[in-house]
Amino acid sequence: MLQYMEITEAQFRLIEHCLPVQRGNVSMENLNLLNAILYVTEHGCKWRGLPERFGNWHTIYTRMNRWAKSGVLDRVFAELQRTQILRIKLDVVSLDSTHIKVHPDGTGALKKTDLKPSGDPVEGGRQRFIWLPQMLERS
Questions:
Q1: CA 10 from chain center: how many Å?
Q2: Strand, coil or helix: 110
Q3: Structural domain contains residue 36
């Protein structure tokens, strides 16, 4: 059976002071949310790819995003490292994209004004090369 990076109830009690107090009608416990974040971190999957046992992916993402902006995640991961519940080392950073568009100026491409300096497409367009074979004179 595969072991996933998950925090137990006892480990959660050691870092619980770093998390905001849950108020009102909250459908998801902080422990479950933290384990879902660790699952995405470990497997590199998309939020929509979370197993159903964690709950609604959108709820998890929304709260994680709020925690990241307010500094809660930084405190939690620092405490996880300090208590040695998890030891995380960041070796590689990757962008979550299949491709990245570069502005044409960044690729070294000619600007449109370089192609047609006079405005006349024939005169200022790309240079055309026409090769006409020449006959050698016979002596």
A1: 32
A2: coil
A3: yes
